[in-house]
Amino acid sequence: MGCYVRNLILFYIFLASALCTCVAYKPVVIVHGVLGDGNTMKDMSDRINELHPNTKVYLVDRFEGWSSLRPMWHQVLEVGADIMKIMAFHPDGIHLIGYSQGGLLARGVLEYFNFHNVHTFVSLSSPQGGQYGTKFLHIFFPTLACEEAYELFYSVVGQHTSVGNYWNDPHHQDLYLKYSVFLPYLNNEIYSNNSSNFKSGITKLKKMVLIGGPDDEVITPWQSSHFGYFDANETVVEMTDQPYYKNDSFGLLTLNKSGRLQIFELSGNTHIDWHINQTIIDDYIVPFLD
Ligand SMILES: *[C@@H]1O[C@H](CO)[C@@H](O)[C@H](O)[C@H]1NC(C)=O
Ligand SMILES: *[C@@H]1O[C@H](CO)[C@@H](O)[C@H](O)[C@H]1NC(C)=O
Ligand SMILES: *[C@@H]1O[C@H](CO)[C@@H](O)[C@H](O)[C@H]1NC(C)=O
Ligand SMILES: *[C@@H]1O[C@H](CO)[C@@H](O)[C@H](O)[C@H]1NC(C)=O
Ligand SMILES: *[C@@H]1O[C@H](CO)[C@@H](O)[C@H](O)[C@H]1NC(C)=O
Ligand SMILES: CC(=O)N[C@H]1CO[C@H](CO)[C@@H](O)[C@@H]1O
């Protein structure tokens, strides 16, 4: 009888530890925005831990401040190498959150390091479709006119800035495709040896969550956060009407068709609000970090 009780207790201990492993939340990596640093994402990290106790959260601390303007591929390779090391510690998978430029950087990591083990990718008001707007431009280049920025960005020199890498001038698409070394490749708008790898990095995600909204004021058009973008008349073409969506060039259609693409349009947030607004963290981000 004593032995039976002991075995029963051992069994419950075994069961409890098995359950503990089951409910453990996957680690989360957060990529900060342009001009930001790891610490700017600390509130989000703290809140994730309040709601999902014991979650290991890694804040990317590379390319902080002005160095966030370094070329996108350079940042993708360095940050990606860090994230690969984190993944090696967590073979059951991780979640990835990118805010603003950090969301585009994170997409670059997912596509380039297509053997990643990311389950949920959250893109928080990121210029996924590119950027063409005065307010954003003037944060870095106060005297440059939006209409003329292409002359700087669509050049070999201009491509040495992150902003140039995703500057998407709807009136100069020929130059965009000719000079931009980043966004058209990431979108597989230009076919390359890497195209099918890039796509597989997206289609293996369990979930992609896109968050953005009309009061952003910095991401222009704001629909870029949802893969929508300007046509030649500066009319916004929604994601589902974009050629790269319709021909599934990098996997968005595949994600959507299988119910793995979640899009949230939220009003009342300017660009600097997204990562500190607790409603957004609680209701639109944390539920996907299981
Ligand atoms: C998909 O559409 C893009 C336009 O965004 C085009 O550049 C690309 O060549 C197309 N790819 C395929 C495989 O049709
Ligand atoms: C792409 O791959 C093909 C075949 O493997 C190779 O011949 C070609 O040189 C590659 N192109 C580039 C730009 O690496
Ligand atoms: C832009 O507007 C003009 C005139 O309204 C129209 O003819 C043209 O087809 C439009 N172009 C696009 C890309 O929608
Ligand atoms: C994809 O997403 C859009 C908008 O989020 C939705 O309207 C559409 O029905 C979805 N499904 C497919 C197969 O495109
Ligand atoms: C936070 O976001 C929610 C959802 O968009 C919005 O309704 C609310 O006004 C925002 N709150 C603050 C303080 O910005
Ligand atoms: C951006 C990128 O990944 N470029 C690589 C694509 O593949 C070729 C080789 O096929 C590499 O040389 C590029 O660096």
From TrEMBL:
It is found in: Lysosome. Belongs to the palmitoyl-protein thioesterase family. The keyword Hydrolase applies. It catalyses: S-hexadecanoyl-N-acetylcysteamine + H2O = N-acetylcysteamine + hexadecanoate + H(+). Transmembrane segments: none annotated. One of its GO terms (cellular component) is lysosome. Keywords: Glycoprotein, Hydrolase, Lysosome, Signal. PANTHER family: LYSOSOMAL THIOESTERASE PPT2 (PTHR11247:SF27), PALMITOYL-PROTEIN THIOESTERASE/DOLICHYLDIPHOSPHATASE 1 (PTHR11247). It comes from Ranatra chinensis. GO terms for molecular function: palmitoyl hydrolase activity; thiolester hydrolase activity. The keyword Glycoprotein applies. Catalyzes the cleavage of thioester bonds from S-palmitoyl-CoA or S-palmitoyl-N-acetylcysteamine (unbranched structures) but does not have activity against palmitoylcysteine or palmitoylated proteins, branched structures or bulky head groups. Conversely, hydrolyzes both long and short chain fatty acyl-CoA substrate. Its EC number is 3.1.2.2. This is palmitoyl-CoA hydrolase. Gene3D superfamilies: alpha/beta hydrolase. Residues 1-24 form the signal peptide.
